[in-house]
Amino acid sequence: MGNSSTSKVEGKGKVVLKMSSGKELTLNDLLHVPDIRKNLVSGSLLSKNGFQLVFESDKFLLTKSGMLVGKGYLSDDLFKMNVMTIVPINENKNKSSAYLLESSNVWHGRLGHVNFGTLHRLINLNLLPKFQIDSNHKCETCVEAKLTRTSFHSIERSSDPLELIHSDVCDLKFVQTRGGWKYFVTFIDDCTRYCYVYLLRSKDEALESFIHYKKEVENQLNKKIKVLRSDRGGEYESPFGEFCSQHGIVHQTTAPYSPQQNGVAERKNRTLKEMMNAMLISSGLPQNLWGEAILFANYILNKLPQKKLDKTPYELWKGRTPSYQFLKVWGCLAKVAVHIPKKEIFPCKSTQETNSLKRNLESTSSTSHDQELMEKRNEVEPRRSKRTKTSKTFGPDFLTFMLEDEPQSFKEAMSMPEAPLWKEAVNSEIESILQNHTWELVDLPPGCKPLGYKWIFKRKMKVDGSIDKYKARLVVKGYKQKEGVDYFDTYSPVTRITSIRMLIAIAALYNLEIHQMDVKTAFLNGELDEEIYMEQPEGFIVPGKEKKVCRLVKSLYGLKQAPKQWHEKFDNAMMSNGFRINECDKCVYVKNTTSGYVIVCLYVDDMLIMGSNNDIIKATKRMLNSKFDMKDLGVADVILGIKITRTSDGLILSQSHYIKKVLEKFGRYDDSPMKTPIDVNLHLTKNKGNDISQLEYSQIIGSLMYIMNCTRPDIAYSVNKLSRYTSNPRGRPLEGNTVSWKSSKQTCIARSTMESEFIALDKAGEEAEWLRHFLEDMPMWTKPVPPICIHCDSQSAIGRAQSYMYNGKSRHIRRRHNTVRQLLSNGIISIDYIKSKDNIAGPLTKGLSGERVNCSSRGMGLKPII
């Protein structure tokens, strides 16, 4: 005993515990100790005999092989099992163990909780494997779902298919399905009992369903429907009756308050609903999935034998024996192969699916492994935060690119037909890492945990869509780093797309050569100050040093501090060679010598080099090659997905290749072009109907934003309003044309048109100041830089900007008023009035006619590419 006392054992034997679940639990080698006032069961012995104890708060579940055996609750600091009766072994007449019922229970669940008599018939027809069935066993789910009164007896049966069709509409509108279905209608052939089920949104759709049913069955059987029997529901009156009369179909209706006259359809509806309830209860799925359950139940019933038929309805209707080997328990977990477009989002090759449902169900994808019945459970959905979750935003100057269908792991890459090419890319990556002395093999210090890694594979494409090269990147799992231990500061600047356009415009204006270079494995150049350890990469584990780890000496892709360390290394290299950093954009470097000047613009590892002559450009390339492992791409062709074309008129930026790719991806390539990006009369409202594909919609908007930010200011307002459109590819010659634009909703509430125009004027002034300071750092630009003229079509806003007097009515925009006044006083900007019809910024704020859009586009420097 627990208090060190002893008690006499009076006997030893076996008992059967009848659980509240209906199962029986046999306990062997049981000791009878009268002095113990409570019956005790050892949880450890239950575990050794294959049982599982699952504790959940104040209750527990006893299961075996996934089946619920019993349950209990916490009482007086002890878990008490719910037992209905305790039967000594000599009183237990049923010699079969409850766990011999596993096969019958599984098939009972697979076949939609049909009765055990049907299972006997399937075994006798050799349609199911032979297994033992306890006729006294009761399924609690069936008892809960199917408890009814005694049914009426059938009276007659037709001799040929389609001689008599029974039909009835069942109302389940108390719960609307995900597809909006509220009813279902059945059409049952009296001869074969083969049934069709159609889901309806309203009862008047019954006629449309019957027309579809009539065409299909008459074509399949080469027979005509002769009689249709239904109740007197309004859905079977005109025009349903007129349709039957026109096609020679006798429409029989039941007498009032006599549903037994249409008993076949009525009983079918009841059976379908019982199976539906049983499947929903056993799976734990919400009731709004009753439509899927009804269709599955009808599918099963058509393949089950009827009481007065020697064959199943399926065999009588189709002429072949049904198969049950592919059936799974309805509502079980399944895994399906991911469709190719989804692989841009999901890293795995398969994903859990639930027949287009949101909730995961329990099953298995293996045909040799039998899935277990799911116990009934009441799961409490976790509380979700009401705080709106937003992703990090880095502004329009950060560009993202969509991945193609590449391998997701090292093993997958090595098993593909392109394995030799991927192997070459992997070897090149490892070679770069080793040559750069990125890590050294050491023993893992006590208390340290190495970071994992991942191989990233990508096919780099050319503009024409062909493969340029295969790239492999070893990335450390930096998301497991701890701030303050593995890293401290992570900020790293990235050049603005506006800066790139400005530099290309300067190159067009001064006829400068533009070259392009790429830094190989840029992030491997940064020096690390912290001690970071990583596992040895798969396929390159050093023999004899398997237990050692990589201590990172230099930064590696994936580390949170890698971008910062690389940028600091590049800054030091450039400044030590006479370059100075532009104050407005920390990724633009300028060098002015007696032989000329050169400008370098860095975007992570891609860079543009432009200079007054080829000699200074070549000298810069030699310097960069001496510092880093570089790839010389020659004259600039494509930078960040923007194609640069030099013509006699200057330079043209275009994205025709990217626009074509986007149109093909979303199935819009063959659509007719529109005259304007957005209809003038279009009024957008929130979608209150069925949901659309949120993922595809976001991808479309993201692609349009990328195009708009790079080369297409004419669609800025349309993208801002989240509109869809297609357009012919266009280009932009850069010399005295648009280099910066934006269309967004104002964040400050304006109480008048003047205040709204003044807020826009303040934003334009801020951008003009940045552009002016950017040009001041350019060696070729005339100094001093004259004021930048801003055209405004609001005379009241111009008057307010030029007025020294302050009006208290507009005090909430006082800071903006002071900012604009300061810019005017310092000679940074000037403001001129322009008529609204001549303002080329009009399409960025509103939808305009085709003529106005074309006029404004020409003013921005846009022209079609032929």
UniProtKB/TrEMBL annotation:
Region (Disordered): 356-389
Any one Gene Ontology BP term: DNA integration
Keywords noted in UniProt: Aspartyl protease, Hydrolase, Metal-binding, Protease
UniProt domain Integrase catalytic: residue ranges: 157-321
Record's keyword annotation contains Kinase: no
Amino acid composition bias (Polar residues), ranges on this chain: 356-368
Biased composition (Basic and acidic residues): 369-383
Pfam family membership, one: rve
GO molecular function: aspartic-type endopeptidase activity; metal ion binding; nucleic acid binding
Protein name as it appears in the record: Integrase catalytic domain-containing protein
Species in which this protein is naturally found: Fagus sylvatica
Taxonomic lineage from the root: Eukaryota, Viridiplantae, Streptophyta, Embryophyta, Tracheophyta
